[in-house]
């Protein structure tokens, strides 16, 4: 009898526990979803960067070689030209990054944009 009286005295306690468990399930699902979204975004960003690097690398090499051949004032033209073109193709100041219009990059951008609230 005493057990039954305890249950009837605190009916809100059982409802509170149930609500807590339900909220915990939703929070856990949201955290898992966020983790999956971040992993997907990282994968898409890596694909974009790989596609861009494939196109940028030959240009970067060409310009670096031209720089080394024409650079007469520097003590070490190889080091100077490598440093000068180190960020070639990347965003710098007002200059946008090159090849961000590739399909892989647009897919990464669209995915990032869709996950913003």
Give a short overview.
This protein has 117 residues and is an all-alpha fold.
Helix share bin: over 70%
Task: Report the β-strand fraction as a percent range.
Answer: under 5%
Strand runs, count: 0
Largest sheet: none
Instruction: Give the helix/strand class.
Output: mainly alpha
What does this structure look like?
The protein has 117 residues and is an all-alpha fold. It has a domain at 40-117. The protein has four helices and no strands. It has helices at residues 2-9, 11-70, 77-84, 103-114. The longest helix is centred in the middle third of the chain and has 60 residues, at 11-70.
Topology record:
Elements: H1 2-9, H2 11-70, H3 77-84, H4 103-114
Q: Which terms would index this structure?
A:
117 residues
